[in-house]
Amino acid sequence: MTKKTSSRTDARSKQLSCAVVIHLHYEDQWPDFEAVLRHIDEPFSLFVTLKPESTFGDEILQRFPKADVRAVPNLGRDVAPFLALLPRLTEFDLVCKMHTKRSEGRHTRWRRSLVRGLMGSPETVRAYRDAFDAEPELVLAGPREYYLDGPSHEGLSKKALALQHGPMPERYGFFAGTMFWCRPSAFVDFVELYPQTCFVAHADNDGQPEHVIERAFGCVTAAQDKKIMLWDGETEITKASALYGDTDFGRIYANGDKDAPQDEGHERDPNTPPTLYQLHEDHRDFVSDKWTGNLLHYERLLRDHRDREVRLLEIGVQNGGSLQIWSKYFANGRRFIGCDIDPGCAELVYEDPRISVIVNDAGAPIARTQAMRACGQFDIIIDDGSHQSRDIIRAFLSFFPVLAQDGLFIVEDMSCSFWQEFEGGLDLETSSLAFFKEVANVINREHWQVETSVESRFDRFIRAYDLEFDPSILAAVQSVEILNSMVVIRKGSREQAELGPRMVHGTKAHITGAGKLLNGTYCVPPNVTRDAPKITDLEHTRPGNIAISVVIPFYNGSAFLRDAIASVKAQSLPAREIIVVNDGSDESETRWLEAVADEEDIVLLSQENMGQGGARNTGAKAARGTHLCFLDQDDTFRTNHNEILVAHWRQAISHQETLGWVFADVAQMDRNGAILTEAVFPYPAHPVLERPSQFIARDAVMFPSAALICRESFAEVGGFDPALVGYEDDDLYLRLLLSGYKTSFCPVTVTNWRQHPEQTSRQSVFLKSAEHFFDKWFGYAWGDVEERALADARLKSRLSASLEVHLHTASKAQRAHIWRFFEKVQDARSSARQDAIKCVEEDSSEKTGARE
User: Fold this and answer.
1) Distance (Å, rounded) from C-alpha 371 to C-alpha 337?
2) Helix 209-223 × helix 79-89 angle, to 10°
3) Among 490, 436, 83, residue whose Cα is nearest residue 300
4) Per mean pLDDT, which range of 159-163, 699-703, 704-708, 753-757 is the poorest?
5) φ and ψ of 496, to 5 deg
6) pLDDT confidence tier of residue 767, bands split at 50, 70 and 90
7) Which of 431, 457, 526, 826 has its CA 20 to 30 A from that of 124?
8) What CA–CA distance (Å, rounded) separates 562 from 557?
9) Which pLDDT value is given to residue 418?
10) Is the pLDDT of residue 540 over 50?
């Protein structure tokens, strides 16, 4: 009688004792077996047999400390080691037997298909366990497609089978490849029938003892009138003597794994780069552990990135092999950074200089700083870390701001979000998957009928995990893709995330009418008259949040202003307002600016000409934001300018309570916008000198257009000095430092600085500004007399060097001015230096007198 059932879950199956036996002749195939062992959701014992010379046991024991790992003679392939273990295995109710095969295209496909048929998923494993639990007469089980007809495939084994087991059953079958589930007690007699002395070294010819025993498992099952189970998604259990097997082994072997990726064949086009699947299959260095299903998703997701100079961050390094494979997949990649909390990862040494590892907690702000110092931004971020919900959410909130436009943030092993051990659960409202579902809701906020705020949707996560969370970073989320055990978040601009207006075109509408009237309209939920909740509103209502006012001074700058405004509007983290200050421009330029103000959503202020510093001060006084960003009319922000600076501020403020401003790097571009230099900041190792008197010794290179400044701090020190044009930045930051405010450098380029002859820094007014700066700070009472003397010397040295540079590009009239100023600097006498000498001499005299 044949019995067909679907897989079921029964409490009794938990009582079965289970073992898995793997003969690991080809050690490089271990990751495939390690991966499927995860599908066993009940306790089991693991037995692994290795070649005599193998040292791979330690690798296995790291993952399975209680495993029985032993080296065995290279005799009888996988069968002799299994029979040697059989007396021990009889204490188990069921055993799964598997082994490696040669790593050649068809062999590989066949092995993987067999393994998948035995342990390809938790459901598959449960099906076998349930069957053995329900049917005491069941002694052998395996995948239906590999069950062969015995009499048709006896070959040279026929005589040995008859000698060992007597008259052969009229009908029986066996599992090709000798991989199956079995009840070991049913075959314990094989130990005496086939002693270890009968086996020889590996041979391909038929009729070897291992070939006889392969068939004997099925033959004995039929002779004892026991049952066999076949599995193909459904369970079929029947008497072995009544079961027909496949008579065409050649067809089965040729088909191999029909579901395997088609690019897996061993003959590859040398002109076609290997797929990610192939790279993993061929990998022989540090161990990498990835799900095969994820590899296929990666291939689709990353195909368009493959030839780019990608910057990749992977959270969770483990044994380090994944970074090696990524570096091969992205042959043109720029950097591959790993981050892991395990100190052992610091010992990993890579030959590829593009690969490096940070040892730190990915959720800690310092980890992000270390990553940004190494790479700035990232095009791809992969979280394969602890898989705890709190860690996944923290890592996303920390690193998403440093993901580049059109970048991908990928979270692996999201299966853990369903498990209590990882702060998950199917219906748990604070699981990591629940968080990303909420992010998907935010993308669609314009369609909400319920009157609620974006912030309130995340309150439960903030409370559960004590998060510092500004939901405004979600404005840049373009899509959330939920896959099997994987979540993919794509970053884009606000325009990419929005649904946009309706497009209705065409001339014939026979079914529904009035379509043309809807053209250009926006989607509005039924019975809702209010505006959709805006992410940017959160910046102004939530305590401690940052609202940015962007101030742009304008003076006859129509050639570039539209580019500047467009760059502010394209920010992934929107500014609260854009303030343009017309600093006494010509009449025609003023009319042009007023027309632009009517078109653009900007605040326009006008004043008599007061210079760039005065215009910035006017804009700052009118600002309503908590923080200020200044942008010159001819420069542009990069799309993540605000996002990067706000994220860095939040990190820095946690350990610098008196933070006054943060700043980042700039790129140089030509008049037409082509990038000339990606970064200009010359002091990445020591971005901020410890004492204000040291600060004056060098150009600060802290561009206001790449800085985020606290508005209250700016107002407290009086803003920019209007008399300075060219040194106003240094002067402002110096006064902030003297007022007790701190700063922090973010090693990322956030602004494009345009180079062209009309720039202020190249006009003659620079010399007047430099002289004013010298007069203002030379002789300043810094502290003790020695510090004042050193500061004066540093300022003289700095300006002398600067004047020497300007001599080479100055006109004849400017050269005369430079020489007069140079003479003034050189002749300047520091009273502090005389005081310092006198102080040192007096101190020396007092010490001499004391000794006498």
Assistant:
1) 7
2) 40
3) 490
4) 753-757
5) -70, -30
6) confident
7) 431
8) 9
9) 96
10) no
